[in-house]
Amino acid sequence: MAAVTPLLSTRGLSRSFGGLRAVDEVDFDLPAGEIRAIIGPNGAGKTTFVGLICGRLAPSAGRVVFDGRDITGMPAHRRVRAGIAYTFQITSVFARLSAFDNVALSVQRRLLDAGAGRPGRARLEAGVDRALARVGLAGHAATLAGNLSYGHQRLLEVAMGLALEPRLLILDEPTQGLSDGEIAAFIALVREIAEDATVLLIEHNMHVVMELAGRITVMESGRILAEGEPAAIRADPAVQQAYLGG
Amino acid sequence: MRTDGLARIVALHLGLVLLLLALNWLLPEYHRGVFSRILVLAVFAMGYNVMFGYTGLLSLGHAMFFAAGLYGAGLTVYHLGWPAPAGFAAGLAAGLALALAVGVLALRTTGVAFMIVTLMFAQVIYLLTLYFTTYTRGEEGLVLAPEDRFIALPGAVLDPTDPSTRYLLALALFAAALAATVAIVRAPFGRTLVAIRENEERMRMLGYDVFANKLAAVAVSGVLCAAAGAAYALLFGYVGAGFASIQYSILPLLWVLLGGAATTLGPIVGTLAMFYVVDVTSGYTSAYLLVVGLALILLILYFPRGLVGTLRERWLPWLP
């Protein structure tokens, strides 16, 4: 295992906002095929950290390496094309477009990048249908995204990420605001996604984390506090301290 | 989007062009002249619509692109003796060059700052037309001689001073611009622009180069507006600084708002409606601008999506 190059790694990755070091010299490795959860109290720097990975934020220092390439200076849209998809913490769908059109933008991007010239209508529709079906929104293709229920908007967001066929899918608090039934379906969905993509998950719901994560990274005050398998993390006194208070 | 409706979209737009073609023989002389002008200015509005309607970039300086075409064609024909088609091409090239230059700089800003920056660039162009008054004759303008505007084709010479030829040339330009707009709107590029208008950050995180796409929209818009300007110079034979003034930056915005932003037919409907509201009311009162202003206020209050936009919203959701 040790010889395998990780799909994603960061070295000394830092980001300061004014005097606050939101992410502080983080060394992080994520092997391909894993489901990794990042947990930590509010303000621990989780969203900032994944923002640095997907290029929404520029780091103050450090490097990001994806699939053996240094992508630290690469703009966000090119990282997406390189295979890093990000779903937003705050639902960010195109409210005035139909669910179909939302996902079509992802499929169109992928088809354009595949270099097959202008994406044909049939392939576009097939790609959209497949992504919507995978998240269970097949019956809602024509609905305006803004008229979908909150849970369905979250799923649409995931479908847009999926349709890019990423190698690394970053989900930022995907189950926030979902009902218990929706969460159960979501867990099954992420397991299925993980069969052909690596998943990096920021999540507060410990049930979801324990169900899904192969390994857990715990962040606190911009640093990695602990990393390990779920059982070990649960038993770690430092984690209990950070999470539950002393 | 699923209900493709390509057939009826083509039928509608083709039908409109054929109707306008028939009007060449049906309209009284005065109205045919008015329509020639409207068709050219509708192309200006269509160019504006690509940026404002579809991409969500509110420019207050589009007179500069119209003027780039107008002077690009006018100066080369008047001073260099270029034949009309070469002058037209020079107008397009001037529009493209200006659009790329202004786009690269102005797109670094958004919102209100973008409006101000485009307004300022347009003022620069306007003042340049006055500064080089030796060549442009400023407000007074240049009048192109009829024979300089002839378009030589193999076996025929088109004379834009003939009202019928002029109308048909204006219609040909309009039809080409309309076809281009419909094609763009239905292409992946058009969907990309609309999505950027709706949620720029999301588009970036779907792997789209937002800046490059916006710049392309400015270029398309600039070229369409320059085509209108160049055609105006050649068809009507007058090139004056008035067309570079702030008034001609505001007019396409009003035409597009009136007709319906982000609709392919909004620009022609809005331009036509505005012209005839002015035409009819000025026959009754010298205070016609008061009536026009009132009409616009009512329109924005009750039909904020414009005439075609309201049609699409209420009854015809398939309109592109």
Taking pLDDT < 50 over at least 5 consecutive residues as the criterion, the unreliable ranges of chain B are: none
CATH architecture classification of the domain at 1-80 and 201-246 in chain A: 3-Layer(aba) Sandwich
Proportion in helices of chain B: over 70%
Q: Terminal Cα separation of chain A, in Å?
A: 36 Å
Number of domains of chain B: 1
Strand arrangement within the widest β-sheet of chain A reads 6-7-8-3-9-10
**The CATH superfamily title of the domain at 1-80 and 201-246 in chain A:** P-loop containing nucleotide triphosphate hydrolases
In CATH's first tier, which class of the domain at 1-80 and 201-246 in chain A applies? Alpha Beta
Shape descriptor of chain B: globular
Description:
The complex is a heterodimer of chains A (246) and B (320). Chain A has nine helices and ten strands. Chain A is of the alpha/beta class. Chain A has a domain at 1-80 and 201-246: Rossmann fold (3-Layer(aba) Sandwich), CATH 3.40.50. In chain A, the strands form two sheets. Chain A has a six-stranded mixed β-sheet with strand order 6-7-8-3-9-10, with helices on both faces. In chain A, α3 crosses α4 (121-134), α3 (99-113) runs parallel beside α5 (150-163) and α4 (121-134) crosses α5. The longest helix of chain A is centred in the middle third of the chain and has 15 residues, at 99-113. Chain A is globular. Chain B has 320 residues and is mainly alpha-helical. Chain B has one domain. Helix content of chain B is 73%, strand content 3%. In chain B, the strands form two sheets. Chain B has a two-stranded antiparallel sheet with strand order 1-4. In chain B, strands 2-3 form a two-stranded antiparallel ribbon. In chain B, α3 (63-80) packs across α10 and α12 (266-281) runs antiparallel to α13 (288-302). The mean pLDDT of chain B is 93. At the A-B interface, α2 and α3 of A face α8 and α9 of B.
